[in-house]
């Protein structure tokens, strides 16, 4: 969200507040939390976070020292404040209404680990207000119960809860206001307890102690709670600035802040286990809809098996926000697609800030790994450099191709031809030569073509990468292959020579005739919608197969546009992409 759009959203919210309470009137000593007070609290929090964003960013050393926690929390609260106004005056009349919109907006607009976790504070308050009677107000006991509920939701959402983080500060705030009946007294108690707990976080995590800082997410929560006190009482809460301690130590275990020493990065040919696994490469976030509890639980297990900082939270209305740090961004996106319908996919390279300090070369390039002579000109015509391979690309060949681009930022389209472990090692090795590698989640060439189609070298790198990743994630792909041996598949037993339709890594179609398999595969792919089908014809396919596919689409799916290209790839008889 741009600064201009954020300002417009907040201006709308403020205009609605003035209309609700009368121009020039300040709410002081409100007996309970009503809808108008929730609006003023949201606006006040955004204003305060905007003023302290850089201060909180500077505290951010855990779980990744990327200095963006203040920015992420500000974005989260800005989205939440806009959601209250977006609900309309007629829809937001009670505290329960306002807190429900605040919760939904914070989950929908959550950024970063802390933003996702803090959204659960609002979800807890919203659930408490919704279950506490008519919903006109929320008193001190309701605030305590809501914070307690939010603390429980936040802990259950985090794969590995740790003390000394924002979770600890939320717990302290909830416990601190227990038993307070008056809302203003409860708010004061919650804020003071959070402040005391925040000061203790430095000694609870080695990485915080090493840097001499308090937890950045906890600092953001304290700002929000202090704004609640000011909204209710009209009295501004004065806190000391959050700064790094001058006597920062290495911590109880002697651990310092983890930083990648580029001089010690293993060569590209080194084994994958020589590469540091403590520095995750990507932060992946998206919103998940149409997923039941079982699908969400399965998604959590898969992400926990492959990544860190897994946080999956609900908005209380059936939607979910997913956050994970891992080295294979495509796996996180594919896992979400298996669980339900994903949107607002956001992929951030966690090493960008550090790499910018190492002196990157100028310029940006897109490098596509292509298996098939026919697909090479397709990628080149779209502006990509091409590494042509026969099967799988070696790490050394990929590193050499990255170097030949002579660009500081290289967006790599792996297209299913690069092993993830090779990609990690090559990315680290490329930093030694002043290049930042940004792999995109393309597991096939049809996804790569969709991604390169939206590439714009004139856009900022972050925007371009996001748009390309989103295009790849929105393209469903399937593969037609030929069985080499007799085997048992999900769709039954196949014999040598049978045509196999593969979707998501599983054999979904087994047919003796390739034309029948293609027709069945197309029907499966288009059964959930689609406007454009792309066929990449492999070296083993004949002209009759492509003609049969075209005839089937024309007859059974006449509204769908079909594009056929000679990919000449060796592994797949056909690659099918649906957008």
Automatic annotation (TrEMBL):
Q: Which InterPro entries match?
A: DegV_domain_contain (IPR050270), DhaL_dom (IPR004007), DhaL_dom_sf (IPR036117), FakA-like_C (IPR033470), FakA-like_M (IPR048394), YloV-like (IPR019986)
Q: Which Pfam families did the record assign?
A: Dak2, FakA-like_C, FakA-like_M
- Which biological processes are named by the entry's GO terms? glycerol metabolic process
What SMART domains does the record point to?
Answer: Dak1_2, Dak2
Q: Which GO terms describe its molecular function?
A: glycerone kinase activity
> Domain DhaL spans what residues?
36-230
Q: Which SUPFAM superfamilies match?
A: DhaL-like
Record's protein name? DAK2 domain-containing protein
């Amino acid at each position: 969200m741009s600064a201009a759009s954020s300002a417009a959203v907040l201006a709308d919210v403020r205009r609605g507040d003035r209309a609700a309470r009368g121009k020039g009137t300040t709410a002081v000593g409100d007996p309970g939390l009503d809808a108008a007070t929730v609006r003023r609290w949201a606006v006040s929090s955004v204003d305060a976070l905007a003023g302290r964003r850089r201060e909180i960013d500077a505290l951010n050393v855990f779980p990744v020292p990327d200095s963006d926690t203040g920015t992420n929390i500000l974005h989260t609260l800005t989205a939440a404040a806009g959601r209250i106004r977006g609900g309309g005056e007629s829809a937001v009349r009670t505290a329960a209404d306002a807190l429900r919109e605040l919760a939904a907006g914070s989950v929908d607009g959550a950024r970063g680990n802390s933003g996702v976790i803090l959204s659960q504070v609002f979800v807890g308050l919203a659930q408490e207000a919704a279950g506490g009677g008519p919903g006109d107000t929320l008193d001190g006991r309701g605030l305590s119960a809501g914070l307690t509920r939010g603390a429980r939701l936040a802990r259950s959402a985090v794969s590995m809860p740790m003390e000394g983080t924002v979770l600890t500060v939320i717990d302290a705030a909830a416990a601190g206001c227990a038993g307070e009946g008056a809302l203003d007294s409860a708010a004061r108690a919650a804020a003071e307890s959070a402040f005391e707990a925040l000061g203790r976080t430095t000694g609870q995590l080695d990485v915080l102690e090493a840097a001499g800082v308090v937890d950045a997410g906890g600092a953001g929560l304290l700002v929000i709670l202090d704004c609640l006190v000011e909204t209710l009482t009209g009295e501004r809460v004065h806190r000391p600035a959050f700064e790094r301690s001058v006597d920062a130590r290495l911590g109880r275990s002697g651990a310092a802040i983890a930083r990648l020493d580029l001089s010690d990065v293993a060569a590209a040919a080194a084994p994958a286990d020589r590469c540091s696994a403590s520095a995750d490469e990507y932060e992946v976030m998206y919103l998940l809809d149409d997923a039941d509890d079982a699908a969400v639980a399965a998604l959590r297990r898969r992400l926990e098996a492959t990544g860190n900082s897994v946080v999956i939270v609900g908005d209380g209305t059936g939607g979910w926000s997913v956050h994970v740090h891992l080295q294979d961004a495509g796996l996180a996106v594919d896992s979400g697609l298996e669980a339900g319908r994903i949107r607002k996919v956001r992929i951030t390279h966690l090493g960008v800030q550090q790499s910018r300090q190492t002196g990157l070369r100028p310029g940006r390039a897109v490098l596509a790994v292509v298996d098939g002579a026919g697909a090479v000109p397709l990628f080149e015509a779209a502006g990509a450099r091409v590494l042509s391979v026969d099967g799988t690309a070696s790490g050394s060949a990929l590193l050499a191709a990255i170097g030949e681009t002579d660009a500081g930022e290289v967006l790599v389209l792996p297209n299913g031809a690069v092993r993830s472990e090779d990609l990690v090692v090559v990315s680290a090795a490329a930093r030694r030569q002043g290049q930042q590698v940004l792999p995109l989640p393309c597991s096939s060439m049809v996804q790569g073509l969709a991604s390169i189609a939206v590439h714009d070298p004139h856009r900022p790198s972050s925007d371009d990468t996001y748009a390309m990743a989103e295009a790849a994630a929105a393209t469903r792909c399937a593969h037609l292959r030929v069985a080499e041996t007799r085997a048992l598949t999900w769709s039954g037993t196949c014999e040598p020579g049978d045509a196999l339709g593969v979707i998501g890594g599983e054999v979904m179609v087994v047919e003796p005739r390739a034309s029948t398999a293609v027709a069945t595969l197309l029907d499966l792919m288009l059964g959930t919608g689609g406007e454009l089908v792309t066929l990449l014809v492999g070296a083993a396919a004949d002209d009759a197969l492509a003609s049969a596919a075209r005839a089937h689409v024309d007859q059974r799916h006449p509204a769908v546009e079909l594009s056929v290209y000679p990919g000449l790839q060796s592994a797949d008889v056909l690659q099918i992409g649906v957008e």
